[in-house]
């Protein structure tokens, strides 16, 4: 697994790090929320205007009191201005926050939809904890940036522009001097921005790595405990925490240098204006009033300019998070169901009823495949599964049996050869249409957090009580239902931790059977079952072939010796094909596999050696 390196910022292809590009990206994010952006900007500007008007009214009020004029209308106006400014500010803030939440909601929907549909290979390349943190931590940081920085930038720029226009009118030369000082501050800010963005990216990557490493430890907690690995795992995660801290402190350091730089520039421009402007006051072309007015307008530049610089810094921080979100959104994914041709809604009527009987349910023709280039796992594999047939795939460990299931499930596409469902090339069908034909009970026996019923009815949420009872009986789950507090509505823990491995395997089998597919794929269905349940499952498999075809992978040949056909896989090819008795005489590979398990021809007494790793822990 090649996880994301948290210590290295990873710019996406075509990454443009200029501030203009960053602002444009942030602006693009608000598509669909432009009314809110405009409303929030207008409200903030109105708030500023109302704020600026208050000193004027206050001045008049003071003057009026000196002249003993009526005061109350001015005081009422002042109070109205104050209340309106507060109300405008509150509404503006709410509109902004709501817009930020809206942007984050859209991004989270897109990310979740994408991450659940990535090409299977991508899950091997990226750590799930890190992917999760892009949906949670990165979007949260981005919300702050979008809701705060954009409006600060727009309003700050507008107010500053207004002040500049008035300053040009009063004294262009003085403005030039001010502009030079501000430009010096802007250069300092610009030199800091790159560092802020890189540090922010490093911090977000480290947060992702914390989530990924924590997930690694929690996902294997019994193993970690037994091998006394808590401290090692904590130390491993601690390194990530330290990296996040270092990057966070660096971001804070750079951001805190920015404010004094801006303040120095503003104070410097005041001094320049005072000294140079003062020297130029001559009472004719340059009056003292001009200088005072110019100084006042220069002061109006202070707040908007600092908010523009702060916003630019914030936007660069947000770009670190956005970069990671964009990377996740551009990972190769399977087409969504909406993009693929419409497929039938699962009816629980086996698909085979709608296709000609003479075509095999599944056929592999000369399939070649490797997970990585130049390392083929399958090299020209061919076999087929006819209707109501039980076909077994056997072979040494690593021969490629589970890989066949992965191809049939269309998690990967073959490098060569053709995969056919009901005589139709898989490439001509949507992935959903292919998967609709199959149900899988694989080695991992996935059980998700939820009730026993949720787990059994996962593929068919609207299954009737009778259908559920039927598969419970078939999978020999009655005992579990009786024992589990709450029965079918009893909650199974994370990854089905409250069940034994054998029970989990039978839950997965019940789920697969309930789907009533055209083809049932069983990968090591007996690996966690005792001999009593293994025999029962063999009977179930025979019964199931009355309804659908079965392709089963098993190391324990006793499970599959009654199969209609056994395909022996060797070195990615079909080494032999036939029934148990035929293969015992014709296939040296099969004989070797059978010899290790002391299997005799079917019909004679069978003695199965249960591999130590699959020996049952509890009698049923
Ligand atoms: P077993 O009987 O032990 O379950 P198998 O016959 O099912 O083995 P596969 O799981 O299909 O074997 O694996 C075939 C080969 O492909 C092995 O060499 C394995 O290391 C490799 N392999 C399996 N999955 C991947 C993957 N996701 N990425 C890279 N290589 C893989």
Give a concise summary:
This protein is α/β, with parallel strands linked by helices. Helix content is 59%, strand content 10%. Helix 5 (128-170) runs antiparallel to helix 9.
Structure commentary:
The chain is an alpha/beta fold and 620 residues long. It contains 19 helices and twelve strands. The strands form three sheets. It has a six-stranded mixed beta sheet with strand order 6-9-10-3-11-12, sandwiched between helices. It has a four-stranded antiparallel beta sheet with strand order 2-1-4-5, with helices on one face. Strand 9, helix 16 and strand 10 form a beta-alpha-beta unit. The two termini are 37 Å apart. The structure holds adenosine-5'-triphosphate. Adenosine-5'-triphosphate binds next to helix 10.
Fill in the keyword field for this structure.
single chain, 620 residues, alpha/beta, six-stranded mixed β-sheet, four-stranded antiparallel β-sheet, 19 helices, 12 strands, 59% helix, disordered N terminus, disordered C terminus, binds adenosine-5'-triphosphate
């Amino acid at each position: 697994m090649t996880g994301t390196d948290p210590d290295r910022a990873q710019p996406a292809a075509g990454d443009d790090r200029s501030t203009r590009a960053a602002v444009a990206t942030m602006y693009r994010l608000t598509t669909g929320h432009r009314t809110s952006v405009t409303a929030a900007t207008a409200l903030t500007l109105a708030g500023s205007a109302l704020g600026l008007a208050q000193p004027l009214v206050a001045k008049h009020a003071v003057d009026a009191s000196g002249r003993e004029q009526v005061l109350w209308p001015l005081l009422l106006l002042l109070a109205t201005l104050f209340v309106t400014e507060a109300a405008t500010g509150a509404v503006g803030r709410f509109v902004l926050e709501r817009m930020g939440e809206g942007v984050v909601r859209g991004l989270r929907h897109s990310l979740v939809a994408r991450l659940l549909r990535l090409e299977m290979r991508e899950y091997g390349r990226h750590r799930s904890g890190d992917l999760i943190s892009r949906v949670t931590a990165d979007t949260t940081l981005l919300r702050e940036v979008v809701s705060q920085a954009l409006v600060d930038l727009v309003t700050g720029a507008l107010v500053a522009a207004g002040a500049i226009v008035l300053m040009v009118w009063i004294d262009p030369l003085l403005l030039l001097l001010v502009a030079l000082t501000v430009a010096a501050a802007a250069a300092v800010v610009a030199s800091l921005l790159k560092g802020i963005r890189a540090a922010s990216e490093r911090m977000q990557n480290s947060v992702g790595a914390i989530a990924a490493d924590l997930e690694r430890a929690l996902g294997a907690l019994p193993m970690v405990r037994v091998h006394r690995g808590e401290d090692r795992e904590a130390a491993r995660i601690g390194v990530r925490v330290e990296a996040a801290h270092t990057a966070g402190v660096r971001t804070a350091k750079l951001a805190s240098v920015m404010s004094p730089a801006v303040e120095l520039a503003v104070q410097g421009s005041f001094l320049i204006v005072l000294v140079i402007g003062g020297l130029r006051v001559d009472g004719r072309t340059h009056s003292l009033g001009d200088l005072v007015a110019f100084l006042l307008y220069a002061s109006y530049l202070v707040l908007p300019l600092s908010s523009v610089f702060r916003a630019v810094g914030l936007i660069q921080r947000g770009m670190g998070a956005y970069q990671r979100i964009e990377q996740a959104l551009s990972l190769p994914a399977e087409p969504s169901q909406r993009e693929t041709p419409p497929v039938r809604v699962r009816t629980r009527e086996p698909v085979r009823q709608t296709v000609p009987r003479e075509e095999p349910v599944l056929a592999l023709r000369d399939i070649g495949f490797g997970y990585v280039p130049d390392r083929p796992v399958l090299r020209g594999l061919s076999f087929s599964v006819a209707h109501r047939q039980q076909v077994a795939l056997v072979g040494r460990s690593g021969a490629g049996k589970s890989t066949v299931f992965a191809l049939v499930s269309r998690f990967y596409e073959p490098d060569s050869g053709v995969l056919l469902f009901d005589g139709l090339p898989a490439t001509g069908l949507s992935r959903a249409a292919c998967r609709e034909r199959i149900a899988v009970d694989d080695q991992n026996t996935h059980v998700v957090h939820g009730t026993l019923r949720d787990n059994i009815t996962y593929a068919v949420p609207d299954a009737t009580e009778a259908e559920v009872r039927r598969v419970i009986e078939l999978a020999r789950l009655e005992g579990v239902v009786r024992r589990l507090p709450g029965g079918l509505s009893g909650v199974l823990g994370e990854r089905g931790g409250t069940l034994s491995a054998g029970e989990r395997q039978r839950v997965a089998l019940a789920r697969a059977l309930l789907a009533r597919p055209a083809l049932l794929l069983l990968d090591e269905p007996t690996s966690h079952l005792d001999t009593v349940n293994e025999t029962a499952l063999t009977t179930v498999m025979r019964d199931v072939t009355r309804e659908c075809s079965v392709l089963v992978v098993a190391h324990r040949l006793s499970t599959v010796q009654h199969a209609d056909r056994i395909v022996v896989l060797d070195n990615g090819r079909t080494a032999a094909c036939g029934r148990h008795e035929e293969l015992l005489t014709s296939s040296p590979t099969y004989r070797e596999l059978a010899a290790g398990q002391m299997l005799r021809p079917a019909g004679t007494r069978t003695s199965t050696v249960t591999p130590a790793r699959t020996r049952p822990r509890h009698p049923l």
